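Sample entry (264 residues):
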Amino acid sequence: MRKFAGETFVIKYGGNAMGEVNLAQQFAEDVVMLKQVGINPIIVHGGGPQISLMLDKLKIQSEFVGGLRVTDAATVEIVEMVLSGNINKEIVSWINHAGGLISARKLRRTIKDPDSNIEKILDLGFVGEPAKIDPQVLIALEESDIIPVIAPIGMGENGETYNINADTCAGAIASALAASKLLMLTDVPGIMDKNKKLINKASLAEAKAMMTDGTISGGMIPKIETCISAVENNVEAAHILDGRVPHVLLLEIFTKHGTGTMIY
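Predicted structure, serialized as tokens:
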């Protein structure tokens, strides 16, 4: 169990595992156990369902384009409140703002007009992408008892707040730290082949081929793209895990065949 002592694991936490009380408690216990055996876990949390619930309560309209929430000035205030307020506010606030961990830039996406076939730029508002990760705060915490919990929020050049996709954020942090593992908790078992059978391991070349031939499609594409980018940039392996499985982190890390898909 101590074979990974001293290694850094970046864990993207979200989906059903985040909203179900028993799974959330088990996740917390497992992360503490990782810390106790000498691993340095870093949590990057999502919060899509919680943000949507709060926006509904406040009767603020929200829409998605290409899987990303269009974020105007009113929405970004709610995003920041939920992400930095509900989960370990003190540490999240310290790392993201005082620590200057995530510098962000506005994310720009293009879409092709079906009538004119001309590409146009989509304005997603305060949606950003990591421009720079400064890992010094996280490195300083490695020898402490603190487990960093990071909200996927970045600061722009002029102090504006940007909402960043949690998967993208976790991948960028894992790469900046040259983490041993990027573990992404999702709502699916992992990569499934065309016969709906779980693929336990896939090389970079195999993962890219599966995106080309359609084995990987839909919402899995950006997750796998994040995993591929991380492995191409200093991360030893990336894992897609089903957050609905009790103790899925321990099953993946400490059992012979694991429970999800590892990309290496």
